[in-house]
Amino acid sequence: MTPMEKRYRIKPNSDFNIQDLPTLDKQAVLPTKEERDAYVAKQAIKLDELQNMLYAEGKHKILVVLQGMDTAGKDGTIRKVFQNIDPLGVRAEAFKTPTPIEAAHDYLWRVHQVVPKTGELVIFNRSHYEDVLITQVRGWIDETECQRRLAHINDFERLLSETGTTILKFFLHISKEEQRSRLQERLDKPEKNWKFNPGDLEDRARWDAYQNQYNRVIEATSTETAPWYAIPADSKSSRNQIIIDILIERLTALDMTYPQVDTHGWPKKVK
User: Cα 147 from chain centroid?
Assistant: First the structure.
């Protein structure tokens, strides 16, 4: 395990309190925002090359899960970290209120429809974890159902892992004060008004309940095959550097190569 992975990975069966984890940590990143932004832009080219190799080789599948409180930066992470990736072979999926068809099936049905296929990298903007977060905090499921779903999710992710999917789950850990600032910015700037949802204030009023539930969910589902990383997210540029470094470390470890093609009999020069 590389230093960046080790620093932010939540070990299986570890005893931790998410509120004790940093929401701002600049010790492992470059000193200034300008340096971090330039570094991420450069590393995004390397990530594109790895994704291109992933697609060409056609052996592995990559699932990236982004979870966090409102304004934690799920959209921003996708824009910055994956800024150079060719749309071919990569896909982002967002999970909102289930449609009537989705609600008529088990809660993991819609998730299984969109997991990565061979050679593909898929990013979940929110995920199946909504079904043990908001549902529990809002009282839509009881304790017995929550425990059942946590077991389902571990089994589901083990299935994906054992059939060739590398799973990386990032909890974007933002402070309550930083969230307040970002929500206020959505109110103050006309070009950001569209992002404001009054429902975000309802969830903010339940901040402690969400923090406690995130703590419980991450502790129960950070496994060897599907680890959680708690990413300090108060600084957007630091968040992006940490995530892109972990992604590159994990994809590099797959030891991918471009397919070898037998060129015997091919012309030496195209006329």
Answer: 23
Contacts of 145 (CB under 8 A, 6+ apart): none
Q: What proportion of the chain, given as a percentage, has pLDDT over 70?
A: 100
Query: Do residues 253 and 48 make contact, with C-beta atoms less than 8 angstroms apart?
Result: no
Looking at residue 230, the DSSP 8-state letter turns out to be: E
pTM: 0.95
If pLDDT is split at 50, 70 and 90, which confidence band does 15 have?
confident
> Cα separation of 116 and 207, whole Å?
32
Domain 3-252 grouped into CATH 3.30.70.2860: no
Cα–Cα distance, 173 to 19 (Å, whole number)? 9
Distance CA 232, CA 21 (A): 8
User: CB of 244 within 8 A of CB of 76?
Assistant: no
Residue 231: partners with Cβ closer than 8 Å, 6 or more residues away: 8, 170, 171, 172, 173, 239, 242, 243
Give the single-character DSSP code of 84: T
Residue 266: alpha-carbon gap to chain centroid: 43
Q: What is the mean pLDDT of residues 159-182?
A: 97
The strands making up 61-68's β-sheet, listed across from edge to edge, are 9-10, 228-232, 165-173, 61-68, 121-125, 90-94
pLDDT at 95: 92
